[in-house]
Predict the structure.
Amino acid sequence: MAQVKAKPNRFTLYYFPTSYSSQKVLLAFYEKEVAFKPKLVSLFSGQHNAPWYVKLNPEGAHIPVLKDGNTIITEPDKIIDYIDSNSESSVPKLIPDQESELGKEVTELRRRLQMVEVDIITYGIIYHPHLSPVGCQIQGAVMRSMRENFANRLAVLTDLAAKHPALRDSYLMKSQTAAQKFDVITDAAQVQRHLEELQLTINAVEQQLKSVKESSPDIADDLWLFGPMYTVADISLTVLLSRLALLGLNNTYFSQDNNPYTHNYYNQVKKRPTYLMIQKEITNLRMTLLWENLKTASPYLAGLAGLGILGTIGYFIYKKWNE
């Protein structure tokens, strides 16, 4: 393992380990072996809507946020770029030289993976379970809770806008985004369209992996999207495939029969140490959430109810990652 040269408290990361965007950033930190100060922002207890966090991230949708001194970065992919360029890690770059042919190819596939509307697909499956052939792997009671929370998001944000005039514009902007996504997510036909577009992206991934494997028949070690190096595009694909498996869509998009190279890639990535580090954090999430709830939950009974939901979510996500 390369030695981490960055000061331990230089970077502060506000995140939640089961968040899709947070997982991408965590993978980047772990791959670069860069230390950071963790700040948990619970999506399930609404901390991402708390005034202190909205002040930190007034325009961002949710989490994560990176703070480096007076520099604050709110977009996950920009955070990854920043860490790759500004940390003192001796680990090779996740993003190859943008002027090189490899750099251009990595950037293009990364861009395509970024275009996948993962939140629409996630909540689309939760609202329309029939779109997942084998069924979403999240427990039914938890899915119902998630549906209710999403449906109430607009009212919550509107109420917060009235209570905090100084942050009114930020809350109203977030409420407008929530309303637009709610219209899409609750329309099964629109969700199905996103799933069909996703198939085209996975097909492109399959062809890329096939090309790499066929061009490197003598390499016995792991091969990733662009060969033996694990790039920023691999980070995007790793987290995407994990989310699709959680939603019960792995057999649809990357079974051994329909996309064998992507199937093997997913089995390979689940053994990668950085992936296992996130898995371990998810394993510990239940106790972490318990402690956070004891500190912040109000009223008491609501806190207890939240603990049960959060613990169940943490367990099922951990269970899926551990398969």
The chain is about 60% helix and 5% strand. The beta strands are 11-15, 37-40, 65-68, 71-73. Residues 188-215 form the longest helix (28 residues).
